[in-house]
Amino acid sequence: MAKRFLRWALPALVLFCIGVFGLLLNESRAQSSGTWSPILFESLNFSDPSRGWAVGENGTILSTTDGGENWKAQMSGASKPAHLLGVDFVDAAHGWAVGTGMGEGATVIWVTSDGGENWKPQLSAVDSKSGLLTSVQFLSTSLGWAAGDNGTILATTDGGANWRRQFHNPSITFLRSIHFVDGSRGWVVGSDGAILTTDDGGASWTLQSSGSKANLNSVYFADSSHGVAVGDNGTILTTKDGGTTWRNRSDGATQSVLHSVYFVDPDHGWAVGGSGVILMTKDGGEGWLREESRTRAHLYSVNFVDANRGSAAGSNYTILVTSDGGTTWTPQLNLLKTLTQK
């Protein structure tokens, strides 16, 4: 079972051990408020400096229209997936979220065309028993990809009305992150240092040599040449030739797992991970500096709209924002109220 599945399944087991009374109390609050309080956020995405979304445990979707100062719940109820792991918006209206399909048959992709006010399921061509989807990216309202367990890559050319399987290799336990720079060039990373690339929109995928056996959790390319992948044990890999050559740039910056990486240009980027780790680079990943997050929460996603304004999200209701390139990170303290009151 993929580590990511265990990460959200184990907290549920801990809650069970706390006692039946606690569970019933939590369920009563959820039913009365119409929403569940998630332990963690898995992914966040901004379509512009003001409009953003965060997704996570128990199918939670939050949105903001003021750059993260205030958030509101968009999705709740029994029809939601058990867990959402990825979200992507191409504009303020059109977005997709992916995750588990537990209890929902083959439905593990959700779509909105009104900024998240209403979400509806899409069939993903992956039966829920075959694994979960962990990452999604769209380049337009029609062209998109998703990746997940058992070496699965899906693609659509009609906004998700129809999804087709582009790649499937169960020997790759999981694919964690997918990123395209245009309609042709893309990369996906996953377990045991796996990196695959395509130059034909995913019609064919080729393994690249990463030089690492660490699980890779996130990949980002600023252009068709410059890319960074991050993963377990503080692993940081960089390339300047589209992945033909990958170099290890960890250099002891952190030993914590890194879950997400994001660049605003070939030089400036950020990576986040376990125990509140936030790293920043100004030279394309050659060297990394640790920024003060002022949290011990595990951070699973980072996103920037420009070199100054960014957000990071993770466990314990945590969403952090910065307006100075990460010199200062500020927690959004209204999240607990948002999640416990309808």
**CATH class label:** Mainly Beta
Q: At CATH's second level, what is the architecture?
A: 7 Propeller
Q: What spatial form do the alpha-carbon principal axes imply? A: globular
Q: Domains counted in the coordinates: how many?
A: 1
Q: How many helical elements? A: 3
Ranges where pLDDT stays below 50 over 5 or more residues in a row are: 5-38
Characterize the biggest β-sheet. 4 strands, antiparallel
CATH homology superfamily name? YVTN repeat-like/Quinoprotein amine dehydrogenase
The N- and C-terminal alpha carbons lie at a distance of 35 Å
What portion of the residues fall into strands of 2 or more residues?
35-45%
Annotated CATH topology:
Methylamine Dehydrogenase, Chain H
- Gyration radius (Cα, Å) is 19 Å
The order of strands across the largest sheet is: 1-2-3-4
